[in-house]
Design a protein that fits this description.
Number of strands: 0
Largest sheet: none
Helix content: over 70%
Order of helices and strands: HHHHHHHHHHHH
Structural class: mainly alpha
Shape: globular
Strand content: under 5%
């Protein structure tokens, strides 16, 4: 937790996130209320009218917020030289990695937790399908975790926080946009294969309230791959030292 809230950036990011999501929830609620007054009630459940669009918006907000959190995890320590001090502690590389990973993950949890007030507020007015809401939050947590591991990987490649944030955002946008290949080239086999790498496509079923084992497996493998890549980068200092 100290890793997540060890700098003012974490507090600025969390405050900004809650202000934006609160505004979106209010705006979407007012829009639905106006439509209900103008056209009467609809047959669509509240999760489709309100929470599915809100979940999609939150996914985009996290896409820009998470790089601001992860950019400093390794890059700042490399720039200040404290990373060498960290290496002298009696901890392994995997413990260092998971310490920073769990710290960032705790911040993601703190970001999402207050937004549970939104379905609780709506529940006072109309029934809420909690299994669908739960699925959406599971999807957001998986998606946010994917953002974090890419951010860890990027931060470990450089000592410049801006470069780390830019590399994280660019990599994540690539994994978002690759799904469009399937739509642009629907008959091409290579496009269908690349489309399977789209984190947005695998997130879509969660937003609909469907817990698909294929999508869960994809996210777990995605997370494991980037954690392994980051750990390999940490271990490389030992190889460099051996060659020297």
């Amino acid at each position: 937790m100290k890793v997540g809230f060890g700098s003012p950036m974490a507090y600025v990011t969390s405050t900004t996130f809650l202000l934006i999501t609160g505004y979106l929830f209010n705006a979407l609620s007012l829009m639905i209320a106006k439509q209900a007054i103008a056209y009467g009630t609809t047959n669509l459940p509240i999760v489709d009218q309100l929470f599915r669009p809100l979940t999609s918006h939150v996914a985009v907000i996290l896409l820009f917020m998470i790089p601001a959190i992860t950019m400093r995890l390794f890059a700042e320590e490399r720039k200040t030289g404290t990373i060498e001090l960290l290496y002298t502690y009696p901890v392994s590389d995997i413990e260092i990695l998971f310490g920073k990973f769990l710290g960032a993950l705790s911040l993601l949890f703190v970001l999402l937790l207050p937004t549970l007030l939104y379905p609780l507020m709506v529940k006072q007015i109309t029934p809420v399908e909690w299994p669908v809401i739960l699925s959406q939050y599971v999807g957001l947590f998986f998606l946010g975790t994917c953002y974090i591991v890419v951010g860890l990987w990027a931060s470990n490649l450089t000592d410049n926080q801006i470069i780390a944030a830019t590399l994280t955002l660019g990599s994540l946008l690539a994994f978002w946009l690759v799904g469009w290949m399937t739509q642009a080239f629907p008959t091409a086999l290579w496009a269908k294969v690349l489309g399977q790498l789209s984190i947005l496509a695998h997130f879509d079923s969660f937003s609909k309230g469907v817990l698909n084992t294929t999508d869960i497996t994809f996210f777990l493998l995605f997370i494991a791959f980037f954690l392994a890549a980051t750990l390999n980068g940490l271990n490389s200092r030992t190889w460099r030292g051996a060659r020297e």
